Amino acid sequence: MKHISHYIGLLVLTAILLIGSVLFSTLYLNLVNQRTDEVILGLLNRGNTHRDVLEESFNKETIEHVSLMESASEFIVVITDEKGTILNASNRLTEEMRKELTHTEMKNQRKDMVLQTPTEQGDFLMTDSPIEISGVHQGHVFMFAPEALIQQVVKPLRQQFIQVGVIAVFLSLVTVAICTRLISRPLIKMERATAKLRDGHLEVDLPINRSDELGALARSITQLANDLDYVNRERTEFLAHISHELRTPLTYVKGYADILSRPNLPESEKTMYLSIIKEESDHLSQLIEQLMFLARSDENEFVVKRLPLALDQVILSIAEKTRPAIEEKGLQFVVSGHPVLVTGDEIRLGQVILNLLDNARKYTETGEIKVRYGTNDIGPYFTIRDTGIGIAEEALPHVKKRLYRSEPSRSRSHGGSGLGLTIATAIVQAHDALLDIKSEPNAGTIVTVQWKG
Amino acid sequence: MGRILIVDDEQRMLQLMKLYLTPHGHTCHLVDSAEKALELVRTVPIDLALLDVMMPEMDGWILCQKIRQSADFPIIMLTARNQKDDILRGHEVGADDYVAKPIHEGELLARIELLIGRVKNESETFQGLYYDPASYQCTFDQKKNC
Questions:
Q1: pLDDT band at A409 (very low <50, low <70, confident <90, very high)
Q2: For the range A297-303, what are the long-range contacts, defined as Cβ-Cβ under 8 Å and sequence gap of 24 or more?
Q3: Prediction ipTM score
Q4: Which of A41, A314, A330, A344 has the fewest other C-beta atoms within 10 Å?
């Protein structure tokens, strides 16, 4: 068997047929019994009517009259006296009938009764209606009917049942087939989709609009494919960016080294080119270091220490280090807050603060940079607010992505690598805190790092 | 030799290109944005352009397309990625060649001279009438005519 639907179908069909046949045969037997009872009752009533007639006048003419009446019917009437001697019979009796007659006679029955006896010539039915005149047992009226009579009644019933049965089996087959198809079709589709996924075709379209588990599965598969596709594209894009980020400084290092090897360069130019080479190689090594850090954070290999830490002290010491560079640009630098304790890694958090302050300095030309720290309703926090160029609204959701720059190649002129915020975010998340960025173009940016209680 | 337009948003790259090319007799027009490049193309005759792909506002691909609407001088793309997609895209927008970073000085010069040389050979002179296919300009006895 190739499809799971076949198993399901077979199982359901077997169950339906089992239950169906039990119900069907019970109903059939009931109906057959009912019909048989009707026939037997009819026979007994007939005998009783004869008996009633004979009880009124038990003489030869009446006996012959009764016998004559039955001679044309399919029944046989036998009238005996109280000792069992046959007075008259409407038809010739078979040996079995005679035997049965004497056998019943011996019991000296006084009640109406029914017998059903199998014989070699075929089953027959027998009824016994004893004749009693003023309390004295006078004889019997026996009625015989061939079993074939019952067969005649039951036969059309049986035919009807066979017809209905065949239709029922056919209908259940069709229903089961449709149901299993309904189950298996989406399964087959999903199997094909996942096979495509495995082969690297990430554009999966599963048009299965169902509200059951199969629909949910289809949606999950589609979601998975989209996620994979996204990750894949993200990776390609990331590699392309990395390539650009690495090749550009490399071009400078190589290029200015080429120029330096030319003869007769003035000393001033040599110094300039050398400093460019130094700057660019520093930039390269910083970039590689950050990439390694990110790779480790992707592998969850970087751990942050969880030690009690005076956040205010960390902020103040980093702020003092960056103050000269900020004030050199003519910017106001204000740091204020209340002492605040967190659990965390001093070096990593220092890295985050340094990176955020660097960003603020790079992207702010006039105005001020304000750092605030302390504890608010939610927990410990610090914010860095600048009056810089800000981030465009459409770029804001992406700035935490690695190598994303709100304008291509902008950050290079500001000396950034495009990885700083990604790393900062990773570190902050490792501290179970959140890094939030709010910004308005040409008004400034507010970065908040917030711990929970 | 050639009048070369160099477009890159980074001053450092423009200077490097200039340092590469001037010793070989090329005249360099350094421009740090696509807008300025388009303006320059309208006013100054150019033999070849070097366009950086990664630029803010308008990237090198779009700039290449826009230049192609009005001019036919050879264009070399400076790209940081030498992937097939980029090469194909370069052909789509009408670039003639591309050089991948980090740039090899000898390779860059060879490609420039090859492209300028080919175009120069296509230009024709007939009884003092000179046709320059790079700028679609005809000059008669060194005076612009049509």
A1: very low
A2: A297/A423, A297/A426, A297/A430, A302/A426, A302/A430, A303/A430
A3: 0.74
A4: A330
